[in-house]
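[SOLVED] Need 3D model of a three-part complex

Original post:
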Amino acid sequence: MDVKQRALEIIKIFDEIYPDAGCSLTYEDPLQLLIATQLSAQCTDERVNQVTPDLFRKYKNAHDFANADVRELEQDIKPTGFFRNKARNIIGCCRMIVEQFGGKVPDNMEDLLKLPGVGRKTANLVLGDIFGVPGIVVDTHVGRLSRRMGFTRHDDPVKVEFDLMKILPREKWTRFCHQMIYHGRKYCKARKPDCSACPVKSLCDYGKDK
DNA sequence: CTCCCGATAT
DNA sequence: ATATCAGGAG
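Solution:
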């Protein structure tokens, strides 16, 4: 079967088993999603969601974060790991948003990438979930599953992103990535993938020798 | 390529 | 003990 055809079949099954696939981070506005996503680097969403309610009660907007004390912010986000980099990035990010973008999260890739600590993964997530702009969100799950499913043979997230863009219909991009992450957490896990129970095993060669 | 880094699963 | 978690910068 053609790889595009196979992707569509997988999406059909994903739509049935993950009908409500969306972002697992809790947020109430664009800035909160931007910051929660930065905190989610090498950290589970679950842990981020344990930290953000207090965080967003304490810092209510870009101005509050821009004027935060670095050491204090470090302590506020410590459980998410990489806390020194993340605290510095969040403050730098919010200063730029206040000074150059009128206090609002930019709505385009070019400007989002200017923000410290924001790469293509974070930018594509914000574009997709906030502004409705289709984007391939390549995180650790999407990269791993894409390789296992034969959608790419690259490790480089940017190459994975462009391979997926060629295979998937544009309007499916954002939702498909959320579904891949759900699937990665439930079946196609990094350590002990549960191929025998996988709903798309007939469309994937990865666990074929068991 | 390395570094950042705490928490949990295996 | 080690791998891994919705990455990004130098």
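Edit: Residues 23-25, 37-38, 40-48, 81-82, 85, 89, 116-122, 125, 137-142, 157, 177-178, 181, 184-185, 189-191 of chain A lie near DNA strand C (CB under 10 Å from a C1').
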